[in-house]
Amino acid sequence: MSFINDSFLLQSDAARLLYRSYAEKMPIFDYHCHLSAAEILKNKQFETITDLWLSGDHYKWRLMRANGVEECYITGGADPYEKFEKWAETISRCYGNPLYHWTHLELKRYFGVDELLCKENAKEIYDTCNALLQKEEFRAHGLILRSGVAALCTTDDPADSLEDHIALADDPSFPVQVLPTFRPDKAIHLENEGFTAYVKELGAAAGVEIVDFDSLKLALLKRVEFFKSHGCLLSDHAFGAPAFISCDKKDADAALKKALAGKPLTGKEISAYHTQLMVYLGSVYEELGFGMQLHLGVVRSVNTAMFKLAGADTGFDAIGDDLSVESVLRLLDLMEQQNSLPKTVLYSLNPNDNDRLAVAAGCFQQRPAAGKIQLGAAWWFNDHRDGMVNQMRALANTGILANFVGMLTDSRSFISYTRHEYFRRILCNLLGSWIDAGEIPADYDRIGKVVEDICFNNAANFFGLPKTKIF
């Protein structure tokens, strides 16, 4: 019997009915990913499955290191097949890891390979996949279309020209909406190396000389409005353990001027700048109708030696344990006091924060958005079955699961859309188990509508996704 079969992760008749009748047919709105708009625009063709599968995928790289694979086969210059073979050796030992499921889902859904990948069959599978990748329908456009994607949101710096997004919007041959996301982390984290140089880049893009806090805000406003004019629906912000505080604009102004002068900053000055800038940006997002995403709880680049060797985002980030929910509540409250709290999605890399953030979200719910403040999907180290179930249980226990905006890929891979299938099967299995236990009614029309909403409709409505022929 095939490992990835029709009942995969669906442990009851109720779960199978919900998935097959409701979840399976829904399109995908991947509202947070790291795909390259440039690669989509040129309809990239991948020479090998290694190029498609292993390039830039720090999820896989971490597992390969954990299996004792030398770095030359991971981020180094080894032969593409040798890298693939090392991944095959690794994944064959990864029972219980979500990548074991994702790997075999991707092989079956995209390449028709229904075998368990291992060293012994690696060459045969490598050749099969590579041959298919030479076909037109296996270029970037074809992979996105066959995945059922209606729209996706990339992650973009405010100084980006968005020329690739503009060209894609003018291309009638590709019906999927490829929308930018406003991610101003480089402007927010003045404590990071390279901040002064980045401020000059931002100012040049906005046509503003940035010399103080007011001119910085003006530059960001101009770039937000530019993003809005090219389809942007949401922003994204990454923090580890932020300390948002009550402070004045003059404190942020003083901190920015010190940073631009190359002077060291105190923790309080950094917090004042973070707070004031986020409150300002929140008001801009609320005015423009943007959703705001806050990704929290990451400790980044903890292995100094490997950071120097391989750089950022290569698999050396970790889960933090010092996120202050009181700090997050303070930020939301400061925005709310000014009637400028935008629709917000809260993610934490630490699963212990699920209940705390779900309850925090409930303190700021109000019309017109259903679930205006969201507990975001299980993220990064949590996007496995247990993590997804725990996140949905926390939301259901303290809020309204039916209003959840659902899953995203958070991926750089063009075939990571099976993560949506993975999530949908887990969602249906959870609801099916509640039906079987008599905890919710076996009203499949109503429960099925909830499934459809979580799979697609809620996110489309929450972020204001424009309707097109494909949606």
Structural category is alpha/beta
Number of strands: 9
Question: Which of globular, elongated, flat, extended, rod-shaped describes the shape?
Answer: globular
What is the terminal separation in angstroms? 36 Å
List low-pLDDT spans: none
SSE succession? HEHHHHHHHEHEHHHEHHEEHEHEHEHHH
Helix content percent band: 40-55%
Provide a count of the helices. 20
Give average pLDDT, whole number: 97
What is the beta-strand fraction?
A: 5-15%
Written account of the structure:
By secondary structure, the protein is of the alpha/beta class. The chain is 49% helix and 7% strand. It is built from 20 helices and nine strands. The protein has helices at 13-23, 37-41, 49-53, 58-66, 80-91, 98-111, 122-133, 140-146, 163-169, 185-188, 195-206, 213-229, 249-260, 267-288, 304-310, 325-337, 354-362, 385-398, 418-436, 444-463, and strands spanning 28-30, 149-153, 177-179, 234-238, 291-296, 298-299, 318-319, 343-348, 373-375. The strands form three sheets. A four-stranded parallel β-sheet has the order 4-5-8-9, with helices on one face. Strands 1-2-3 form a three-stranded parallel β-sheet. Helix 17 links the parallel strand 8 (343-348) and strand 9 (373-375). Helix 12 (213-229) runs parallel beside helix 14. The longest helix has 22 residues, at 267-288. The model has no long low-confidence stretch (mean pLDDT 97).
